[in-house]
């Protein structure tokens, strides 16, 4: 029994060495993962789908026929992710900044969304490079970085999101490829990720607003956070009312972004507001947030059941 076990272990080790040597000689071995990158014949490689076609949000941008509509996920759970993705969205924002979404919940949400042909986008808690890596390694189709202030911060984010030679992102996650359909090989992911994944930053500080002409050309999407932007320029949104100065700032960001040839997105609190910004030419628009939509639906249903007349709702995050 001992001899049989030893012989089997030796044979297995020999097999691993053979595979490793063949992989290294083919330039496909990834020592950090500890496994060879998948081999493909030339005919199979030629027929393989480009990762860009798996990124629905990127596809909507490329077709440029309509705005990309999406939902905000703040409540953890793959079933919540699926509900949002099945509701006709082009993308779902997995909110790790203000939502109740930690790293594990993010890794549950991203594949649940992607499996339904919708783009999972992750809003990071902060601008730190390791957060960019975690989000993209989970298989997110893009990242959104909040509270940007300087051009250097944007450059750092872009670098963290790109593989060399365009950036400094490390290559080592076999998880990411599972969220593109048909599934690319690890080699294909490495070769195509820089062009296929979306890097987005939020303009919601006065410093970023003042530098938007320099920021816009650096990223794929400039996304406006009206609430924090209003706070930071001295014109907060109170009971849903937006001052003219905030409207002017939003219009300026949109104009600069379009002039730079990039896409401009905005956070909206409901369908009516989303339609308004769609008509203004915004490319990426949040329509609703799971938390507030759930709360609003429950309150409304209860009011009807109790025979009460609902008052006018103010815009809510």
What's the helix and strand layout?
Elements: H1 2-25, E1 29-30, E2 35-36, H2 42-47, H3 56-63, E3 68-73, H4 78-85, E4 91-95, H5 103-114, E5 119-123, H6 129-137, E6 142-145, H7 151-161, H8 186-196, E7 198-203, H9 206-210, H10 212-215, E8 221-224, H11 226-232, H12 244-259, E9 263-267, H13 271-279, E10 284-289, H14 290-305
Parallel strand pairs: 3-4, 3-10, 4-5, 5-6, 6-7, 7-8, 8-9, 9-10
Antiparallel strand pairs: 1-2
Helices, by number, come to 14
Mean pLDDT: 87
Strand order of the largest sheet: 3-4-5-6-7-8-9-10
* Percentage of residues in DSSP E strands: 5-15%
- Main β-sheet, in a few words? 8 strands, parallel, barrel
Order of helices and strands: HEEHHEHEHEHEHHEHHEHHEHEH
Structural class: alpha/beta
Radius of gyration: 23 Å
Which blocks of ≥5 consecutive residues have pLDDT under 50? 1-48
Instruction: Report, as a whole number of angstroms, the end-to-end distance.
Output: 66 Å
Shape assignment: globular
Query: Can you give the helix content as a percent range?
Result: 40-55%
SS elements, strand count: 10
Domain HpcH/HpaI aldolase/citrate lyase: 78-292
GO molecular function, one term: aldehyde-lyase activity
Family: Belongs to the HpcH/HpaI aldolase family.
InterPro entries: Aldolase/citrate-lyase_domain (IPR005000), HpcH-HpaI_aldolase (IPR050251), Pyrv/PenolPyrv_kinase-like_dom (IPR015813), Pyrv_kinase-like_dom_sf (IPR040442)
């Amino acid at each position: 029994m001992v001899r049989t076990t030893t012989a089997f272990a030796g044979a297995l080790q020999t097999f691993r060495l053979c595979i490793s040597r063949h992989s290294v000689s083919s330039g496909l071995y990834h020592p950090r993962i500890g496994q060879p990158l998948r081999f493909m014949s030339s005919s199979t490689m030629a027929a393989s789908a480009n990762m860009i076609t798996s990124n629905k949000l990127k596809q909507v941008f490329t077709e440029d026929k309509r705005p990309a509509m999406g939902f905000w996920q703040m409540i953890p759970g793959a079933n919540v992710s699926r509900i949002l993705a099945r509701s006709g969205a082009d993308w779902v924002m997995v909110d790790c900044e203000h939502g109740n979404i930690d790293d594990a919940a993010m890794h549950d949400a991203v594949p649940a969304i992607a499996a339904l042909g919708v783009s999972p986008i992750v809003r990071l808690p902060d601008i730190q490079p390791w957060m960019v890596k975690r989000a993209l390694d989970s298989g997110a189709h893009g990242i959104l970085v909040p509270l940007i202030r300087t051009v250097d911060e944007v450059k750092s984010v872009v670098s963290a999101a790109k593989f060399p030679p365009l950036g400094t992102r490390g290559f080592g996650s076999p998880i990411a490829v599972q969220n593109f359909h048909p599934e690319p090989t690890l080699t294909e992911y490495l070769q195509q990720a820089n062009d296929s994944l979306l890097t987005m930053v939020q303009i919601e500080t006065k410093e970023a607003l003042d530098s938007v002409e320099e920021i816009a050309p650096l990223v794929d999407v400039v996304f406006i956070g009206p609430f924090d932007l209003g706070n930071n320029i001295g014109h907060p949104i109170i009971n849903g009312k937006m001052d003219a100065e905030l409207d002017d700032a939003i219009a300026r960001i949109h104009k600069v972004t379009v002039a730079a040839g990039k896409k401009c997105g905005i956070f909206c609190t409901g369908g009516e507001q989303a339609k308004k910004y769609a008509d203004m030419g915004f490319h990426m628009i949040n329509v609703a947030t799971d938390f507030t939509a759930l709360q609003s639906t429950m309150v409304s249903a209860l009011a009807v059941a109790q025979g009460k007349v609902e008052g006018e709702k103010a815009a809510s995050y």
